[in-house]
Amino acid sequence: MRCGARSTETGSTATREHLGTATSTALLFRTLGNTIGTPILGGLLYARLPAEGAAPADYAAGLSVVFLAPVPVGLVLIVAATRLRDQPLREELAGERVLVETAPMALAQDDHYTIISSDCHAGGSHTAYREYLEEKYVADFDAWRGEYKNPYKDLGDTRKLRNWDNDIRNGQQEADGIVAEVVFPNTVPPFFPSFVLFAKPPRPEEYDRRLAGVRAHNRWLVDWCNEFPERRAGVGQIFLNDVDDALADIRWIKDNGLRGGILLPNIPPNTDYMKPLYDPCYDPVWALCQELEVPVTVHGGTGNPDYGPYAVSMLLYINEVPFYSQRPLVQFILSGVFERFPDLRFVMTETGCQWVPPLLERLDGVIRGIRDTGATGEIRYGSEHVLKRDATEYFHQNCWMGVSQPGPDDVAARHAIGLDRFMWGSDYPHDEGTHPYTREHLRSRFAGVDPTEVEMMLTTNAAKLYGFDLDALLPLARTFGPTVAEVATPIDAVPDKTLERLSADMDPKAIK
User: Fold this and answer.
1) Residue 242, pLDDT above cutoff 50
2) 101, 131, 156: which is the final residue of a domain?
3) How far apart are CA 500 and CA 504, in angstroms?
4) End of a domain among 101, 129, 147?
5) What is the 3-state secondary structure (H, E, C) of 190-227?
6) Which of 184, 397, 422, 425 is 20 to 30 A off residue 404, Cα-Cα?
7) How far apart are CA 428 and CA 410, in angstroms?
8) Nearest to 333 by CA among 309, 359, 297, 307
9) What is the pLDDT of residue 508?
10) What CA–CA distance (Å, rounded) separates 36 from 76?
11) Pairing of the two strands 422-425 and 399-404
C-alpha cells in the first residue's frame, strides 16, 4: 500500500507498576465483601471472648456473635456486587490501568549509577555495508560509491572509527561512565544523498535503492549490537513511502532484537510526493508498533524544508529546525493518533524538553476551547475535531523524551513533563555531545538533584522502555559508573571543547 502523493480530498527508584484495571463499582463491592470480614472478625473476637476459666458454654456464646456479625455484612456486599450494573468508579477511569508508586530504596553515596545514554549514534563503513546489501544492488552501489563525496569531516578522518570500532567506542564510553546506549544511525547508508538523519524521504524513483540501503544498515546493526547485546539497543530504520514495506520492516526489526524500535522519517512540509504523518493511511504502522511494543522515535534536527544552495541556508536551518522537529508531536496529538492508539510508545530524542510544558499548555487551551465552544474566533469546528482529552494527558499517556546533553532549563522541566518520561542522553560520538566530559556534565546538571530522581533519568526510565537488563549491566556500572557522591559534587563549569564552526565542519549540501 503506497502513501504517495497527497490526496486533494479530504531497580531501586520509585517505579510505577500496573496493578490491573479499575473498571466498576461491582469490583469495589466484591473486594469489600471479600475483605471486610477480617478486621471485624478480629475486633469482635478480642471483645467477645470470655475471661480465662469460663465454661465452654460461655465460649460458644461469645463466638456465635463474633462469626454471625461480619458474615451477613460480607454476604450483603457480595450479593450487591452480583446485582449491580457494572459502572465505572469514575467515568474517566473506566478501563484505565491503575498505577501506584512503589517506595524508593535510598542510594548510598558509594553506589554507582548504571548510566544508559538514550541518544548515541553508530553506523557501518561503506565497505561493511556492501557485505549486507542484496546482491542485485551491489553493482549499482559500487558505481554510486565511486562518485560519492563525503560532506562531513568527522566521517572522513579518524573520528569515523568511533562509529563501529568496539575498542575505541567502548573505551571512550566507559571513560565517560556510560555502560549502555540506545543507538541511532550516524553514517551514510548506500544510495543516500547525505547524512542519514538529514536526508529527506526518498522520491519514487529513488525508493527501491534507498530502501535497500536502510535494510543493509539494519542488518549490519543487528550484528553490531549482538557483539555487546546487554549494552546496545539499536534503532532500526524504515520508510513510509510504502506502508506494506514499512510493516514488513517493523516486524523484521522486532524479530531481530533491535530493542530501540524504529526511527520515524520526519516528513518535511514541501514533500509533495508523500502524505503527511497525520494522514490515516499510516494507522496500520501505529497499530503494529503498538501491538509489538516497538518504540517510535522522532530524532531532532529533522523535518525541515530544503533551503537551497544559499550562504544563509545553515543559519536558517539551525534557527528553524527545532520547530520542524516538534511538528510530529503536535500532529500526533491533534490528529487523534494518541487517541486511537493509547499504548503507542512515542519518543522524541535530542530536542531538549523545556519547550514541552508551554507547548502542551497552549494546545490544552486550543483543545478545550474547541471542545467547549466548537470554535476558535471565527473558525467553526465539527465533532471530528473534538478530542476527548487534553494534550497534556495524551503526552503523559504516550510520550517519552530522550533529552540529550540537557541544559539547566531541561532538568528544571523534569517534573512538568513527568519524571518517569525523562531519559538522559550524551549524543555520542557527535562533537557537540558530552564526550569526553560526561562526568563533569552530570555534576553540573544533577549535583543538587535527589539521587533517586537522577537514577530514574540516567537509568531506569530507559531500561524499562528499551528492555535493558540492569542485572547484566551491574558489573560494568560498578567498574565504570560514577558514584552517587561524584555526581552530587558541584562543579563550577564543564571544560570547554574547542569545536569548529558548524558551517566549516559540514557542507550545506548535508541538510538537503
Assistant:
1) yes
2) 101
3) 6
4) 101
5) CCCCCCCCCCCCCCCCCHHHHHHHHHHHHHHHHHHHHC
6) 397
7) 19
8) 359
9) 53
10) 11
11) parallel
Please report, for the domain that includes residue 256, its CATH number.
3.20.20.140
Count other Cβ atoms within 10 Å, centred on residue 469. Answer: 11
Amino acid in position 418: G
Question: What's the sign of the alpha-carbon dihedral 201, 206, 209, 211?
Answer: positive
108 in a structural domain: no
- The Cα–Cα gap between 420 and 279 comes to 30
Q: Summarize pLDDT for 86-100 with one digit per residue, the tens.
A: 444 333 333 443 344
Question: Binning pLDDT at 50, 70 and 90, where does residue 154 land?
Answer: low
pLDDT score for 50: 55
Statement to judge: residues 88 and 219 lie in one domain: no
Sheet with 399-404, edge to edge strand ranges: 236-237, 262-263, 296-299, 346-349, 399-404, 422-425
pLDDT greater than 90 at residue 216: yes
Whether 358 and 492 map to the same domain: the answer is: yes
Residue 15 lies in a domain: no
Partnered with residue 399 across adjacent β-strands are 346
Cβ atoms 422, 388 nearer than 8 A:
no
- CA atoms of 426 and 180, how far apart (whole Å): 11
C-alpha cell at 488: 552530587
Whether 93 and 139 map to the same domain: the answer is: no
- DSSP annotation of 163 reads G
User: 3-class DSSP state for residue 116?
Assistant: strand
- 241 by DSSP, 3-state: which? coil
Q: 279: how many CB neighbours lie within 10 A of its CB?
A: 16
Contact status, residue 379 vs residue 363, Cβ threshold 8 Å:
no
**SS3 at position 449:** coil
Let me know whether 377 and 278 are in one domain.
yes
Task: Between 314 and 84, name the one with better pLDDT.
Answer: 314
Q: Let me know whether 35 and 184 are in one domain.
A: no
Q: What is the pLDDT of residues 445-467, one digit of tens each?
A: 999 999 999 999 999 999 999 99
Residues 289, 311: contact at Cβ < 8 Å? no
One-letter identity of residue 44: L
Q: How many domains does the chain have?
A: 2
Same domain, 185 and 229: yes
Instruction: Look up the domain containing 254 and give its range.
Output: 115-511
Query: How many DSSP H helices and E strands does the chain contain?
Result: 22, 13
Flag whether 110 is in a domain: no
Average pLDDT of the chain is: 84
